[in-house]
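Morning!

This is the sequence you dropped in the shared folder:
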Amino acid sequence: MKVWWRAAFGAVAMGIALGCSITVSESVHNRFVPAAVCAVIAILLIRPFRRRQELGLRDAGRGLLNGLLVTGGSAVVVLGAGTLAGWINWGRFEPHRVLWFLLTNALIALLLEALPEELSLRGHSYSALRSRYRGLVAAIGTTALFLLVPGIASAVQLVLGTIFEQNTQELSFAPPGQDVVSYLFLLTIFGFTLVAARAATGSLWASIATHLTFLTVNRLTFDGAERNAGWSASLVSQDVLLLVPAYLLLAALVYYVQSLISRPALSLASSLPQRDK
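The structure's back. Tokens below.
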């Protein structure tokens, strides 16, 4: 059971970091400050338990590019098919506004979600479970812990909000205004895709890029008008939103194929005689 307690700490750390950032956002009308608070708290909580090499910069470029190409490519294929089928209509494209949105959104999403969540869950929790169990059990356990994070964050915000006399949200496992079942369904598929990215590449940067690309695609397209992103998509019906988990599943499949291709190479490398240093 000790390994499960260690893995659970990743979800608790992320929940605390996210809950604190929500509390800060109630007092500071600036999106960057709460994002930075979330990243700093998560890193401070997780860093003593993880190796420095997990976020090493040597393979960062390769991991980021892999995550970007796999997730972005999967989104292009699936959403492109939806467009050809007449399910998605695209609005006017304004390059300068899109570029500004991409820059600001990337920084905020990286600090608030992609970096702290991947370091806590696919970094700490997955590594803890993988030290004892096979990949499938570790993936299921990590994803289950991922689903607990919104609830933990909600509880933290409720406590802190009461202490600091702020408007508090009801305890929930989904953001305000979202259906809990639909949200957790998407979060489950998203969680498995992020684990697939980490497992297939061995790089936490690949899961960070997958996370960041997913958030960027959805916010630029489906939420583009609301976020004033310079580009947006309109759907013929809400059922078209199922294309989102569809492109995540495609990305997970690509990562699985990558892992199958890499295994023979790793086996061959391990079987070669090693030269004496």
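Headline: Strands lie at 88-90, 233-235.

More detail when I'm at my desk.
O.
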